[in-house]
Amino acid sequence: MRVVLVSTTDITGGAARGTYRLHMGLRRIGIDSTMYVMYKAGTDNRTQKVSGTFKAISNKAVAWLENEVFERMCISAEYCPWSMQILPRFFSDEILSLNPDVVHLNGVKGFVPMNALRSLGKPIVWTVVDMWPFTGGCHYSGDCEKFRTECKDCHFLKRDQFFDLANLVWQRKSKNLDGLNLTVAAISQWLQDCSKSSPILGQFPTELVHYGLDEETYRPIDKFTAKTILGLDPTIAYVAFGADGGTKNPRKGFRFALDAMKILKSRGSKNIGLLVFGETAPDRPVDCPYPVRYLGMLNDDVSMALTYSAANVTLVPSVQEGFGQTALEAMSCGTPVVTFEGIGTCDIVAHRQNGYLAAHGDGEDIANGIEWCLGQSTEIAAKCRDVVLSEYTLELQARRYERIYNSLVSAKGVAKARI
Fold first, then answer.
1. 3-state secondary structure 169-185
2. Closest alpha carbon to 227 in 294, 302, 310, 303
3. 8 Å CB contact between 69 and 96
4. Could you tell me which of 234, 238, 351 has the C-alpha nearest to residue 288?
5. How far apart are CA 267 and CA 269, in angstroms?
6. Calpha distance 113→119 (Å, rounded)
7. Taken in order 304, 305, 306, 309, is the CA torsion positive or negative?
8. Residue 325 backbone phi and psi in degrees, to 5
9. Distance (Å, rounded) from C-alpha 207 to C-alpha 215?
10. CA-CA distance, 255 to 406, in Å (whole number)?
11. Do β-strands 102-105 and 47-49 pair in parallel, antiparallel, or remain unpaired?
12. pLDDT tens per residue across span 50-89
């Protein structure tokens, strides 16, 4: 079985890290997996980027041009992930030269042109890591539900334009994906439900395949030891928060973390600290009543495992979240998670068993969750770890995809025999 995993980047960003982990898992169970990317930062010789200077520069220039167009049409300069992906790029020829049995799309925003997929002539699996595959361009729609009918008049875009960009993108996706030999793999129940309700992806078979991780890399480390190595006060109970985009990404909900810390202070809670990773300390301190320690960007798994082990509780207060690898990593290290109900992390966190599901958008209930987690015995670490070992290892994820690949290749062989 030969599979090509397509991703915009190899190890940069949450979706890319999830793809690379799958790549490693597939290799471990004997599947011939290759990653094909637009930007390569790692050293894995089984990761191939777009070859040729002209092709690489051309693809980057197209991505830059589309981003410039969006910047001029967006309604606000506020953090707003949105991707057009309607201009041509170099893609399908190099994929076919790898002779895959299955092409597996992952985080492909900014890279894969929708009109090139039909020319592959291969079974396609598309892992839906956010809402972009079925929207008119946004990665997450917020309160908007138009993706369930037809995206137009996007609230992220100015309305005084001479054409409706969101509707153009939505229509191109609908047209180019219609009738493809495509299987959707959602990383959470929430994304699976959204995909099924979408006119674009609702026509395709949809599987639920959670992310996995290397449970031996992300493992519990003695808290005193972890805090000492990171230079943290071992007497303080640390509440960890980390995200792509850090505290500046409104979707990740850092404001709820601050609200919760203020509420805890008003209740008289002592010996608490806030631990932030994913960014360095800002020039202007955040309004937090407890000490805040910034760890900066953590680019290796060992540092991440140390951080999660040093934390007494990890917060994932995202307004919307496709899955929440931060939650999975923390729990694999034995640290309970507080998150909101109704998002992708609900698949991982069981309320008052291995963490706490707060009422959506409620900073006070986040504070309740922190108190609950801090009040638990050390046995909660084992409960967190057991969930990962039973459901979220790399091998389990790889085996689930192996089953999907085999069914697609078998179905293709049957179809050829009939012809």
1. HHHHHHHHHCCCCEEEE
2. 310
3. no
4. 238
5. 6
6. 11
7. positive
8. -65, -30
9. 23
10. 45
11. unpaired
12. 887 777 788 788 878 877 777 777 877 566 788 888 777 7
Q: Which amino acid is at 416?
A: K
Cα separation of 60 and 176, whole Å?
A: 22
What would the pLDDT profile of 210-246 be if each residue is shown by its tens digit? Answer: 999 999 999 999 999 999 999 999 999 999 999 877 7
146 phi-psi bin (left φ>0, alpha ψ -120 to 50, beta other): alpha
Provide the 3-class DSSP secondary structure of residue 223. Answer: helix
List every span in the chain annotated with CATH 3.40.50.2000: 2-212+393-418, 223-391
**Model confidence pLDDT, tens digit, residues 270-320:** 999 999 998 899 888 899 999 999 999 888 899 999 999 999 999 999 999
In the CATH hierarchy, which fold is given to the domain comprising 2-212+393-418? Rossmann fold (3.40.50)
Element (H, E) at 256: helix 254-266
| Band of residue 124 on the pLDDT scale cut at 50, 70, 90 | very high
413 compared with 297, residue with greater pLDDT:
297
Domain 223-391 has CATH 3.40.50.2300: no
With tokens 């979240």, the residue in question is 321
Residue 53: burial class (beta carbons within 10 Å; 0-12, 13-18, 19+)? exposed
Res 85: pLDDT: 80
Per DSSP, the residues of 267-297 read: TT--SEEEEEESSPPPSS----SS-EEE---
One-letter amino acid at 136 equals G
pLDDT for the residue numbered 122: 95
- Tokens standing for 198? 């979408």
- Alpha carbons within 13 angstroms on the beta-carbon side of residue 404 total 27
The type of residue at 354 is: N
For residue 62, what are its two tokens? Answer: 């197209």
**Closest listed residue to residue 62, CA positions, set 91, 19, 36:** 91
